[in-house]
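Q: Give me a backbone?
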Amino acid sequence: MRRLWFRLVLFAFVLAGADYVLWQWAVNRLVEQSLLWTQQRPDGLMLKARAAALSGGWPLLARITLPEPELFVGGYPVWQGQALEVEVSPWHPLQLLMRPQGPQAALPESPWKILMQSASASVTLPVRLVWDGWWPVGLVPDTDPSMHILDLHLTAQDVRLRPDGPGWTSADPAPHPETGPPAGYDITTVSRVVMHLRLDQALAVQCNVDDVVLPPVRPWPFGKTVQHASVTARIDPFPFSNVQRRDKIRTWQAASGVFRILDATLTWGSLHASMAGQGGLDDSLQPVMQGVATMASPEETMTVLRDQGWIAPGLYMAAKTMLSLFVQATDAPESATQTGNVGYAGSARNAASYVSVPFRLADSVLMIGQIPVLKVPPPFWADRRR
């Protein structure tokens, strides 16, 4: 019996030693080759950490923690965090799991700095082994565009958007160079954001936002709180090439690239609206789009905008006349009864009327039905010789 126990203990030590060696190898590969892009990659990505990575997770997980990471794209900082966990598990050996920790900032040096505290966030990225003969020597991200290469799930709370610097309009008081924005300008706060982003040959995005509290710098027509907004969109195919932006856009247009807003909804006080549409680029690389926008109680909505001073009386009469051409009966539009739009559908059914308006953007002109209403400036990449 003693000999049996001795063999079991010896076997456990050997197994633990082998597991530790494998764990140490995986941790070293994570540090050296997978995520620490200390030099800019051909696609412009670079990840830096302000201190050495901390290892952990033994015996079942290979995990590193990067203190104060910064992500750069083309030399420009796009994200900062308190820490970033990167791990590989034996259940998914060819998949990296990344989890930001603590307070974070997106676009930290932009006119609109986005601060947030993640309730939960994770990004999965497929990896592949690099072999030297018969021996694996590394783990690197597998960026084959024919495969699913990115899956991001994010639930964030207490998201704050702060106007800063050139993002302010001339009518706003300038931020103090030391104390920053004056009281009341501090921020637009978002109670909760839930987002799922999936990138393979196409980019699919689902995003839901709840309880957006607008800054009290001016009266808002439908109240200072936007109760809910959501969007489901898709870009197909996604432009993976590492060429210049204009060439990438032209390649996407030549491949019959399409972006689709499958569903977008907004609940803001008495305003209940939704839209869907799709578009692309014409031969001059100018946006083209068509779709349908739906709004409950259009007359009430326009009246609120007029009373709050957001539209002039003359424009109010013109808009009211135009919208009256599209006003429908009491039942909610079919698109509003889809899953995920229950709140909007119920409001539309209870409203006296709704308006469902077809719109089209072509040749830089936005048309409502057959009526041109707005000249849209072409994007900077468009061919202006036309």
